[in-house]
Amino acid sequence: MRFLRSKKNRAGTDSELLEEYRRSPDGQIIEILFERYCHLAFAVCMKYLRNEEDSKDAVMHLFARMHDDLVKYRIDHFSHWLYVITKNYCLKELKSRKNFSTLEEAGLADTGGESNDGEEDFDLTPQHLQQLDNALAALSEEQMQCVRLFYLDEKTYTEIADQTGFTLKQVKSFIQNGKRNLRNYLERKNGNA
Amino acid sequence: MEMPDEKIFSSSGHLTHEAMFRYHSHALNREDQYAIEKHMAGCRLCAEAMEGTEKIRKEERYTRIIAELRRAVRRRSRSAKPLPFMQAYILAGTIVFLILFLLIIYIVFFRGGIVK
Q1: Do B52 and A42 touch (CB under 8 A)?
Q2: Does any CB of chain B come closer than 8 Å to the CB of residue A122?
Q3: How far are the Cα atoms of A52, A66, A82, A89, B20 from residue A62, in angstroms, in the given order?
Q4: Which of A124, A129, B37, B77 could potentially form a cystine with A27 if both were Cys, beta carbons 3.0 to 4.6 Å apart?
Q5: Helix ranges, chain A (H)
Q6: How far apart are the C-alpha atoms of B30 and A112, rounded to whole Å?
Q7: B110 vs chain A: nearest CA distance in angstroms?
Q8: CB atoms within 10 A of CB B60
Q9: Residue A50 region, left (φ>0) first, then alpha (ψ -120 to 50), else beta?
């Protein structure tokens, strides 16, 4: 009966596809989403599980639950939702295997293997930063330096590391933490407004 | 700043697997490298996927696995669940079959057969 299937709009955005799936669940839509994100989901599984076969199984498991989840839940940001369910699945797997060394490396041993990552993806634009002189001053010296170089001067991680003498890992961490602090500041500011 | 190479981002706006491997092998120009890092700073899916690809040594192997997964999903999604309109046909067919079956039973056992 494949000839009876309608051709889905492969160029549609994730939100359009999710909306269409909610109206009429069709495996073709899952296929399109899967094709877009499968390489990322698999790579995230590899980060945590460190094994190709386990990561393949994990991706297939996540795909299987998508049929129901996409109808059951209202998902606004597919990529962020996929990241959260992928990470949580991997952490549960590691916990069930009592693989504490991997959990420790992922910095999650203290949380009992549950991801405490409720944050949506957040992109800090230069416009944000220009309004945030006060907030930047509240960051640590290292965070402020890295955030400025990265977002305002548009330097790469390597260039920042060369210029500041920090390691690449430190640069990434200062940017990540600095960005989180700025985000919190923005949220507080907007919340109080 | 120049526009990043089209192959860096997929139609969904996230990193392609080619981009991730080129990033690891330092085979990108400065603009593309910054575009990737800027994207990763705002997208945890891509940032962690980038870390995951470090654990896969060869791009060819990764490409083969992804192709395998896509084929498996295509097969499953086409056999997993009948479409809603197919479910309706199956239900209607079952009802018609039951009605005909009961009609035949009625004719054979209560009316003494089809031909008198």
Answers
A1: yes
A2: yes
A3: 15, 6, 9, 8, 22
A4: B77
A5: 14-23, 27-49, 52-72, 78-96, 100-105, 126-130, 133-138, 141-147, 157-164, 168-192
A6: 40
A7: 41
A8: 9
A9: left
ipTM associated with this complex: 0.80
- The label of the residue with tokens 């056992």 reads B109
**pTM to 2 decimal places:** 0.75
> Cα-Cα-Cα-Cα dihedral of B40, B45, B48, B52, to 10°?
-120
Q: Which residue reads 């009948």 in tokens?
A: B82
pLDDT tens-digit readout, A84-98: 999 999 999 998 887
CB neighbourhood size of A117 (10 A): 14
Residue B44: in which H helix or E strand, if any? helix B44-53
In the structure encoding, which two tokens stand for residue B35, read together? 């575009």
**A8, A21, A35, A39, best to mutate vs chain B, most B CBs in 10 Å:** A39
- Whether the CB-CB separation of A27 and B27 falls below 8 Å is answered with no
Q: Which alpha helices (H) appear in A73-140, and where do they start and end?
A: 78-96, 100-105, 126-130, 133-138
Q: Chain B within 8 Å of A45 (Cβ-Cβ)?
A: yes
Q: Which residues pair with B9 in a beta bridge?
A: B15
Cross-chain CB nearest to B43 (options A31, A87, A121): A121
Dump pLDDT digits (tens) for B45-90: 999 999 999 888 788 888 899 999 988 888 877 665 555 556 777 8
